[in-house]
Amino acid sequence: MRYAVLGTGVVGRAVAGKLASLGHEVVVGTRDPRATLDRDDSFAGWLHEHETVRPATFAEAAEGAEAVVNATGGAASLAALTAAGAENLAGKLLIDIANPLVFAEDLPRFEPVDTDSLGEQIQRAFPEAKVVKSLNTMNADVMVDPALVPGEHNVFVSGDDAGAKQAVTDLLVSIGWPRESVIDLGDITTARGAEMLVAAWLRVSLALGHHTFNFHIAGARRG
Amino acid sequence: MRYAVLGTGVVGRAVAGKLASLGHEVVVGTRDPRATLDRDDSFAGWLHEHETVRPATFAEAAEGAEAVVNATGGAASLAALTAAGAENLAGKLLIDIANPLVFAEDLPRFEPVDTDSLGEQIQRAFPEAKVVKSLNTMNADVMVDPALVPGEHNVFVSGDDAGAKQAVTDLLVSIGWPRESVIDLGDITTARGAEMLVAAWLRVSLALGHHTFNFHIAGARRG
User: Fold this and answer.
1) For a surface tag, which of A93, A140, A165, B35 has the fewest beta carbons within 10 Å of its beta carbon?
2) A157: closest CA among A174, A172, A176?
3) Interface test with B, best of A102, A113, A134, A196 (most B CBs within 10 A)
4) Is A205 part of the contact surface with chain B (CB cutoff 8 Å)?
5) Which residues on A lie below 8 Å from B208 (Cβ)?
6) Between residues B19 and A114, which one has the greater pLDDT?
7) pLDDT of residue B184
8) Per-residue model confidence as pLDDT tens digits over B115-162
9) What is the mean pLDDT of the segment spanning A67-91?
């Protein structure tokens, strides 16, 4: 499968590296590949270690892809996807991993609320894309190596297209998530729940002093 | 211990009933006990089954109590606590179980945000009370009978007073929560995380079709 992973940060690298290791063709999208490489030595080093992964602009990456992963920062996601181009997202699976938390002191623009979510904003902005919110509720290392966390734990999917959610579930299984660990929350509005979970994740992380944990829904398989 | 449980709904009854069964002296506070009894036959029936529990006004209940449980609806909590009286809350443990979710169509007033929480609002409004947010992240049946959910799962405490959090932890253990299941998230601002978790709880509940589940932090004991 040909994936575009938009975003060159910790999450983008983790997901792109994992997809490449699974044999997928991966292009990493960034606003200006030359500028990113010049600015960020660690990204150049990462690319060197992942020879099959190619950097490109958001639009080039999305255009050539069969599926797109939004791994940009939540506050930059709509701009990045706009740069990628609605025509390059139309009809494609768009996996939204981003979180709308803004850590700046100034007014947060994508503050999670219970009446909207970044996942919904993306689906509204790109109605022809098949948006599936997933993987936004755990650390990047855990996303791509769930066995780092002992015991049972869960990953959520939210989206309007059943086939797209099935494709994401299959991808998650190929990454190492047990099939029964994937909880389908429902349509894309349920991304509100998954995104707001991150506010709890942050406090738990600070309380525990580490990131290698994940949410498990105890009792989920009872009903 | 003498507890005032403010609120006569599902949560208030579950907590009051459990506290009474553990041998505590429990007064259930409501705005107008006579009106509540006249309006709500099921509350009268519940009181009949819990002979040691006495109904009273918010103020009477809080005045005679050593510790107060806020089990009112989140949108009504500040008004209920104001009616209880700052002087009747001062110096006392105030366990805040309420959730600021508003289900009405009109503009939500206590919508959870990542810059405030009901727990903090209560602590600000009643600075002499020792507010501990806890037990707001699971169904009322599970609150008072955690063994209903199989396997390990967690309950959170948030608050500024270490002694008050220790008292709540001891109370939780007496209710049946394993001591290691109690996660201290930190000061009262961490109630934001616990309250926003409820947005995920609601979607998980709808997806599973039942309420007998709870959040477990897999990997918590690793760090």
Assistant:
1) B35
2) A172
3) A196
4) no
5) 183, 217, 220, 223
6) B19
7) 98
8) 789 999 999 999 999 999 999 999 999 999 999 999 999 999 999 999
9) 96
- Binned at pLDDT 50, 70 and 90, residue B204 comes out as very high
- Which residues of chain A does B220 touch, with a Cβ-Cβ cutoff of 8 Å? 204, 208, 213
Q: Which string of DSSP letters, residue by residue, matches A77-94?
A: HHHHHHHH-HHHHTTSEE
A217/B212 touch (CB, cutoff 8 Å), yes or no? no
A124-153 residue pLDDT tens: 999 999 999 999 999 999 999 999 999 999
- Do the Cβ atoms of A113 and B111 come within 8 Å? yes
Distance CA B50, CA A88 (A): 64
Q: What is the signed CA dihedral for A189, A192, A194, A199, rounded to 10 degrees?
A: 180
Interface with chain A: mutation pick from B196, B198, B215, highest number of A CBs within 10 Å: B196
Do residue A206 and residue B223 have CB atoms under 8 angstroms apart? no
Residue A182: closest CA among A140, A223, A133, A139: A133
Cα–Cα distance measured from residue B146 to residue B214, given in angstroms and rounded to the nearest whole number: 9
Q: Average model confidence (pLDDT) for chain B?
A: 93
Indicate yes or no: CB of B207 within 8 angstroms of CB of A197. Answer: no
What count of other Cβ atoms lies within 10 Å of the Cβ of residue A163?
Answer: 10
A35: enclosing H helix or E strand: helix A33-39
Q: Which amino acid is located at A103 in the chain?
A: F
Look up residue A215 and give its two tokens. Answer: 């949410």
Q: Which of residues 53-112 of A touch B (CB under 8 A)?
A: 101, 108, 111-112
What pLDDT does residue A111 have?
58
d(CA B168, CA B157): 8
Characterize the bridge pairing of strands A155-159 and A130-134.
antiparallel
Residue B113 DSSP symbol = B
Complex-level ipTM = 0.93
Q: How far apart are CA B48 and CA B54, in angstroms?
A: 10
Beta bridge partners of B69: B5, B95
Min Cα distance A194 → chain B (Å) is 6
What tokens were used for B52? 């040691």
Of A223, A216, A93, nearest in space to A162 by CA: A93
**Using one digit for the tens of pLDDT, what is the confidence trace for A173-212?**
999 999 999 999 999 999 999 999 998 999 999 999 999 9
Q: How many Cβ atoms are within 10 Å of B7's Cβ, its own excluded?
A: 24
> Residue B32 is encoded by which pair of tokens?
């107008």
The one-letter code for the residue type at B88 is: N
- The secondary structure of chain B in percent helix, strand, coil, rounded to multiples of 5, reads 45, 20, 35
B17: which 2 tokens?
């009933």
